[in-house]
Amino acid sequence: MAQKKQSTVSALLEFAGERRGLLVAGCILSAAAMVITMVPYVCIWLVVRDLIAVAPNWSQATGAVKYGWLAFIFSVLGIVVYFGALMCTHLAAFRTATNIRKRCMAHLAKAPLGYFDTHASGLLRRRIDGAAAQTETLLAHNLADITGTVAMFVTLLVLLFVFDWRMGASCLLAAVVSFGALFAMMGGKNANLMAEYYDALDVASKAGTEYVRGIPVVKVFQQTVYSFRAFKAAIDAYSEKASYYQGTVCKTPQSVNLTVTEGAFIFLVPVVLLIAPGAYAAGDAAFSTFVTNFAFYAIFSAVLSTALAKIMFAAGGLTQAGDALKRINEVLDAPVLPVTDRPQAPQDASVSFENVTFTYEGAELPALDGVSFTVAQGQTVALVGPSGGGKTTAASLIPRFWDVDEGAVRVGGVDVRDMDPHVLMDRVAFVFQNTRLFSTSILENVRAARPEAAREQVLEALAAAQCDDILAKLPQGVDTVIGSQGTYLSGGEQQRVALARAILKDAPIVVLDEATAFADPENEALIQKAFAHLLAGRTVVMIAHRLSTVVDADKIVVLDQGHVAEQGAHAELVAAGGLYARMWADYQTAAQWKIQKEVA
Ligand code: ADP
Ligand code: MG
Q1: What is the DSSP string of 75-98?
Q2: 388 lines ligand 1 (CB under 6 A)
Q3: Whole-model pTM?
Q4: Smallest CA separation from ligand 1 atom 14, residue
Q5: What domains can you pick out in the chain, each with its CATH number?
Q6: Could you read off the pLDDT of 367-401 as tens digits, one per residue?
Q7: Distance from the CA of 51 to the CA of which of 74, 113, 309, 439 falls in 20 to 30 A?
């Protein structure tokens, strides 16, 4: 446990970089501030001692004014030093959080694109931001508070034994009992209970979010809240944990702790009663010292347990920061796409798969197994086959969403792994089904493909992608910001803007996931026209969902369960009477059925 906390702090110190020293300085200053804050109490004790010594001739207590000023000066000094401490720790904490964010972002920039398929970008951002913010609390406050409180505790211990060790020991007893009670609540096996408690809270809040998202479904289907069993179960689990923890585990220890902390002198009184007669017998001077000491211990006995509780709560920050660090490391453990030292330039715009085998992480069967096919420059290859056959996977290996396990994917004769990633990205344009548009103007959305493109070029690309009707109906035309003033584009319209993007990119190779179905036939006709513009004269790898679009392809590759079932031109495959011939027959029956139905 101590080992783990040590490593949490040192790992964070590493992130702090050159501001590491500030953090150490902050902790030292905080400790100094705490010790300084104790001085006024001592001064008060000295004043009380003076007054008691001269009682009732108060005017003779000349030291009182001096001690009063000292108390004031040290109070102010304590605040100033503590302020300085927080200044240091905050500067270090902010830099650390920034460094964590930067390091995570830099790392994610090197991750294969496929990583973002399985790790939603919003989630990653929240994870990084949340974790960085959590370490901020530890570094800016908790660490300085822990060192400060430890310093205070040690000073107190010394003070306790300086004046009268017997009263000191009795006060310490209160602290020990209170510490024992706190440990019974939070230490040992109950430390896990705390973790479980927070986990349950986490689950409940996630289920709550899901519930809110699902309200439309609930309303449409006239369901009650009880249909959200997961939500109810999460709340029940949380409430059970909370009442068990608070009602069963904490009840007795917390009562003991509060009693002992608030009434710490219950230990002091018997001791005082025991030693009072002796002090009285020893004469006036000894007795007045005894009374002053009693006043001192009565005040300080409570501070001791409070200090202990503070240390324990601040230590909770360590656990949280440890959690945060774990999440940060998960991001930093994301795979990195290896980049070659000696990049080779592709010879032409051909694409070839050579015996490609690829298995998704955690999957049992390979998604692609020994897949080979070639697409010569300027040719169109259609990938077809049953759902789950590996079409999307094959297409995403070309831009290195993932790297193959065996075999090679070549572009222009060069293994994609031996190419400069920028060159590869320049050569290949992708249009995937659910392309996302940024919330910026249509112009900028399209220009993202080629930042140096002039406005006219963007407009040309939009025209080629049959987007003129979209621009015409938007309030500011091509400069309309998507998502603003209720301007949303339908799925088909978004697809056309995405096509304009690909057309503007003007890459020699196009990888295209043809959309399954568009609601309105009008959009579909426009999209087909846009396709024609995009595909003319380029090498095309197309995932086709409707066989009508593949009839004219130079080659059709039929993928079934990760294998190439057959490949060839449409006529050849129909003649061969294999899987494709069956799919074609089914497709024609369906098409005829549709026509007949419409005629009837
Ligand atoms: P298709 O596009 O032909 O429908 P896919 O390439 O999407 O097929 O999927 C091929 C196989 O890989 C399927 O068995 C699918 O379940 C699996 N698969 C696809 N994506 C992932 C992923 N991100 N993680 C794990 N398995 C995946
Ligand atoms: Mg697919």
Answers
A1: HHHHHHHHHHHHHHHHHHHHHHHH
A2: yes
A3: 0.69
A4: 388
A5: 8-332 (1.20.1560.10), 351-591 (3.40.50.300)
A6: 999 999 999 999 999 999 998 999 999 999 998 98
A7: 74
